[in-house]
Amino acid sequence: xxxxxxxxxxxxxxxxYFEIKKELDKxxxxxxxxxxxxxxxxxxxxxxxxxxxxxKAADVFSYLDxxxxxxxxxASTDVETREIFDELYFDDIVDIIEEMPSDIVKxxxxxxDRKDRHLINQLLKYPDNSAGSIMTTEYVxxxxxxxxxxxxxxxxxxxxxxxxxxxxxxxxKNGKLEGVLSLKELISKKDSAAIEDIMNTNFVSVNTNDxxxxxxxxxxxxxxxxxxxxDQENRILGIITVDDVLDVVDQEVTEDFHKxxxxxxxxDDSYLKTSIFxxxxxxxxxxxxxxxxxxxxxxxIQGYEKVLAKSIILTAFIPMLMSSxxxxxxxxxxxxxxxxxxxxxxxxxxxxxxxxxxxxxxMVSIVLAILNFIRLVTLEKTNFIIAFVVSLTLVFTVxxxxxxxxxxxxxxxxxxxxxxxxxxxLITTISDAVTLIIYFNFATMFLKL
Length: 449
Hints:
Elements: H1 2-13, H2 17-25, H3 29-37, H4 42-50, H5 54-63, H6 66-75, H7 78-86, H8 90-99, H9 102-110, H10 114-124, H11 131-134, E1 139-143, H12 148-158, E2 164-171, E3 177-182, H13 183-188, H14 195-198, E4 206-207, H15 212-222, E5 226-230, E6 236-241, H16 242-260, H17 276-293, H18 295-303, H19 305-310, H20 318-342, H21 350-379, H22 384-414, H23 424-447
Parallel strand pairs: 1-2, 4-5
Antiparallel strand pairs: 2-3, 5-6
Helix pairs in contact: 1-2, 3-5, 4-6, 5-7, 8-10, 15-16, 18-23, 20-22, 20-23, 21-22, 22-23
């Protein structure tokens, strides 16, 4: 894309606009948006966008980042704004409006008709991260008393304005969803066949207030490309398409990664566009909590000052033991959190998880302890008993950390908290304290200190 950007920049300097149009015509909408996103000067962004064909401009606009969308809307006339948003689907319009400042939102709403404004405002009122907030209202629906011929005729008239025509929905006269019908089934039946006789009444739907994460799970479970959204009375209000679910998955994964790293209130903005003050505020909370909690480890070490004074070499192995505990705990928590997210396990499987992680802990700890013992005795010429104490501590540290790493996310799930919060930072703090207690007790026992 950078190469194309340089070509366009050179053509702009020479005012060869026809050549620029030819270059843009070679690209699809996503590629053009990637190129435009590389330009920072508003006048150049607007000039390039206005060189696009009208039928492609709206597609390109939907893929631009919010900063460039704002530039274009701000510089567009009311007619140009109307032309852009007339070609966009409602879910895309809502996504754009949610990212825009109030003055731009007013301009967008001003240039949509009353019916569209009502639908947009309705979508905006749904809770954040709900099925209603990500659905689109452009779907194909038929009355159940229609014939196949009537349904196909309606589809020909309205289908071009719908986001998905491959799955059609069948309703009664009150709009209640009673069945679904694929386009393939529709065109394969006789013209005189009644829709209610060929529709499939075994379907899956979601409520407008259902969490978007639940929606994503259903898409994965059933391999859907589209799903209906209904209200409390089972009236269809919209559909969710797989492209919207991919955005949800990306958002949820990003959020979990941030929480696992101890970052609170993650934003949707990219790294470079997020202010340093926002980033500092996101990170400082957990860092402060963990800094204070780490005094526990310090207090444990102070409590065994006499032991360390008699055998100062014990100090050299503390970082290795603490690091090993934190690492194995993080491994367990990551696997358990992922399995919880995929629905592979639940809190009722706690005993199975404990049994599995305990078995893994034994196998891993014995291998690590043997390798560590050989290294200490042969390479570092460490005293045999000290090497034994360190290696024995490693066995218990790994097993305990494995169990802690597995149980904390399960515990969070039981109390309705986000399992991702119970991740690396908290596990490391607990593991460090347990490791030190085990280490110094073994040292006191075997070294007679």
